[in-house]
Q: What sequence folds into this?
């Protein structure tokens, strides 16, 4: 999935995958003309989307639907920042095979997050009560980018929530997968760099760090996190953790923006909308 990629990012996908695997590219915000020409000329590459930002969830759903319609059983999900190769895909395919031997059946398997200087690496909490399997670790959720998804499992779990638009889309889907008798796994032997946001915000006293995001995206994160507290398939332990952590994140972000009244009002409004169930596309989301 591409959101305004650089020419180098588009070329990387062509060089590493085109002609060696079937490639679906969803244009979710506009691909530069020079990059678009290379994608159109690539062997075995199909372009989807119209260059409008429909949100991550809608793009993922379109990719999954297209892959299922083409007869594929699995879908390797990547965004433009993911530094993955065919070897990454082969390793995850083997991992998914190992995970598929026992119940609960795997919905997806993904790599461990490699260090990416200047960015806070994501953390995937272990799933309680589920033993490791075939060298894989059961986790509560994974980032979609870099994950290999079982498309029959996708059909069973259902689509990603398009009313979330962007943040917590993968988290909610994985919790839903667990609630429907499926599972999510991380392969510690396979790692790719993964970053969120444009840097890291760190607390001066507490050992707490969070991604630095544009205001619209931070507001969506706050809204979707608060809405997650309403969902029965999100575990109570996660709700309690986020209920303690989210106010701290809001304060850290507010401090980073010099205690701007506009920033605080936006985040508190997002919190209220999440608690009230008011979701959908943010008014100031990039086109």
A:
């Amino acid at each position: 999935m591409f959101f305004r990629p650089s020419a180098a990012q588009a070329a990387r996908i062509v060089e590493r995958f085109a002609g060696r695997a079937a490639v679906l590219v969803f244009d979710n915000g506009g691909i530069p003309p020079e990059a678009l020409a290379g994608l159109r000329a690539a062997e075995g590459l199909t372009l989807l989307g119209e260059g409008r930002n429909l949100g991550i969830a809608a793009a993922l759903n379109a990719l999954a639907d297209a892959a299922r319609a083409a007869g594929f059983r699995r879908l390797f999900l990547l965004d433009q920042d993911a530094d993955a190769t065919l070897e990454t895909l082969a390793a995850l395919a083997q991992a998914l095979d190992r995970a598929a031997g026992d119940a609960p059946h795997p919905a997806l398997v993904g790599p461990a997050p490699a260090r990416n200087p200047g960015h806070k690496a994501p953390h995937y909490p272990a799933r309680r009560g589920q033993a490791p399997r075939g060298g894989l670790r059961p986790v509560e959720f994974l980032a979609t980018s870099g994950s290999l998804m079982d498309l029959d499992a996708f059909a069973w779990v259902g689509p990603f929530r398009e009313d979330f638009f962007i943040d917590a889309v993968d988290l909610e889907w994985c919790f839903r997968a667990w609630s429907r008798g499926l599972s999510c796994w991380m392969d510690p032997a396979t790692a790719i760099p993964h970053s969120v946001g444009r840097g890291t915000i760190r607390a001066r006293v507490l050992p707490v760090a969070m991604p630095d995001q544009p205001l619209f995206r931070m507001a969506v994160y706050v809204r979707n996190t608060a809405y997650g507290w309403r969902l029965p398939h999100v575990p109570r332990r996660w709700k309690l953790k986020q209920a303690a952590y989210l106010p701290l994140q809001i304060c850290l972000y507010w401090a980073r923006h010099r205690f701007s009244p506009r920033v605080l009002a936006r985040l508190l409004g997002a919190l209220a909308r999440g608690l009230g169930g008011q979701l959908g596309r943010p008014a100031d989301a990039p086109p």
Q: What stands out?
A: The CA atoms of residues 163 and 279 lie 6 Å apart. The chain has a mean pLDDT of 94. The first strand starts at residue 23 and ends at 26. The chain has nine helices and nine strands.
